Amino acid sequence: MSRLLSCDAIVLATYNVGEADRFCILFTKELGRIAARASAARKPGSRLGSVLLPFQRVEVELREWNSGYIITGARRHPACARTGELAQFLAASEIIELLLMLLEEGEPSPELFECLAEGLRSTAPSPLPHTVRILHLLGHMPSTDMPHFSTFSVEERHCIGEWIAGGYEVSMLSTGAERTLSSLCENILNDHAGKKQRVPGIKQAMTFAV
Predict the structure, then answer these.
(1) Are residues 69 and 100 in the same domain?
(2) Are 66 and 53 within 8 A, CB to CB?
C-alpha cells in the first residue's frame, strides 16, 4: 500500500542510477532528511531533470512505498538558491556539505530547514553565520559563556549569540575572530562527523592561487 505526499524540499545531493534515473537526497520541511528516486529523470524531455538539482528548493510530489520514496513530480520553489556567483556557490556548497555530514534521517526540523533555505538565498560570501546557527540547531554549538569563547570580546560574543538566535545580519567580528570561530566550527564538525569538510580547503586553495 502506498500513499501520496507533498513536501517543501531542498535538494542536498543527486546521484545518477540505472540508465535514466536520479537518486536524490532531500531535506524536507515535513519529513526531515529522506532519500528518493526520480524515475526517468535523465531522459530527454523529462520535466524532473532540470528541477532536481543540488541546492534547489523544490515542491515535490512523493509516493511512499515500503521500500522508500519515489518522486512523481517537482517544480521550483519561488525562493530558490542564488548560486550564480562563485562566492555564493562556494558558500552554499559549504552549508550543504555540513548538513550531508551531520544530518541523519529522522524527525523534521522546520527551524533547521528555514535556516538552510535562508543560507542558500544569502548573497553574503561567508556562510559562517548560518554554519553557527546550523550547529546550534543540531545541538553541537556550545553557548557563548563556555571556555571556547574566552578569547572573544563582549561585542563578539554578542554577535555570535545573535547568529545562534538567527540574527544573521549582525556582524561585529574581526578577521581574527572569524578565523578563530571558523576553526572552532571545523573542530566541532570533525569531532561529530570524523572528517573535515572539503569546500573550505577548496576555497583556501583558490585564494592562494589568486
Answers:
(1) no
(2) no
